[in-house]
Design brief:
Length: about 120
């Protein structure tokens, strides 16, 4: 079993910054893609950013130039640096990881979510 714990959310004023972290633990052999999703009230969960094991990244258009995803493979941790935050970035942010367990089967796991609120 693979667990993800995501942290770093909070209340920030428009234009401010936050850094989210997500650490994976458990019987992990390898992690392929790690990503961040978000879900605002009354809306569907959407992919915000994803990073592969090789460091390739992709972002939803609305955050390009403002958010940066990175990962530390040695720590099985993914980060999301969020700058120039806007009220429309308000949502619960979830990390996601997919890979292979130590005993062979693949996994796809979610963090518990962390609230990000952008408001003055």
């Amino acid at each position: 079993q693979v667990q993800l714990v995501d942290t770093g959310g909070g209340l920030v004023q428009p234009g401010g910054s936050l850094r989210l972290s997500c650490a994976a633990s458990g019987s992990i052999f390898s992690i392929d893609a790690m990503g961040w999703y978000r879900q605002a009230p009354g809306k569907q969960r959407e992919l915000v950013a994803v990073i592969t094991s090789g460091g390739d990244t992709n972002y939803v258009d609305s955050v390009k130039g403002r958010f940066t995803i990175s990962r530390d493979n040695a720590k099985n941790t993914v980060y999301l640096q969020m700058n120039s935050l806007k009220p429309e970035d308000t949502a619960v942010y979830y990390c996601h990881a997919m890979g292979t367990t130590a005993w062979g089967p693949t996994f796809g796991s979610w963090g518990q979510g962390t609230q990000v609120t952008v408001s003055s």
